[in-house]
UniProtKB/TrEMBL annotation:
It comes from Halobacillus faecis. The chain crosses the membrane at residues 12-36. GO terms for biological process: establishment of competence for transformation. The keyword Membrane applies. This is Competence protein ComG.
């Protein structure tokens, strides 16, 4: 008689398992959108940081090697190329994430710097992401670009 009572209390009932699974699914459904938003913010920060560094590299190469380096933006493909016009070859190509849209407003598609590190044609461009819009300003002079979140 002692063994029959022991068998009744081993394990969980079907209702208890369903309640626990329901609680876990509710918690996970709240967590996954937060994780996706965090991923998108991290992707945006890394892409904008890479763009800053590539513009700085173009400026640095123009000042120290020759002025024939340029950063060429392509609105249709959604990326840019660091190009060496003296050697007639691309140094590297970078693409913006697939869901981003690039719009050059006053910025010329080809960004060049002179020997003193000043941009030849200043301008503005916009980067549209699924959640945010960024205004990128390349001012006259040797100052760095400015990124504003709109």
């Amino acid at each position: 008689m002692n063994k029959s009572k022991q068998k009744e209390h081993n394990g969980y009932t079907f209702t208890e398992i369903v309640i626990v699974l329901l609680c876990w699914s509710i918690l996970l459904s709240c967590f996954i959108p937060l994780q996706y938003r965090t991923y998108q913010e991290l992707e945006a920060n890394m892409t904008l940081q890479q763009l800053k560094e590539d513009l700085l590299l173009t400026q640095h190469l123009s000042m120290n090697e020759h002025v024939y380096y340029s950063l060429n933006f392509d609105q249709e493909s959604g990326g840019y190329i660091l190009y060496d016009a003296k050697e007639r070859k691309p140094i590297f190509t970078r693409d913006f994430p697939d869901h981003w849209v690039v719009r050059l407003t006053t910025l010329h598609p080809t960004v060049r710097f002179n020997q003193k590190g000043m941009i030849q044609r200043a301008g503005t461009m916009y980067l549209y992401t699924p959640n945010k819009t960024y205004k990128i300003i390349l001012p006259f002079g040797s100052s760095r670009l400015r990124i504003e979140e709109i």
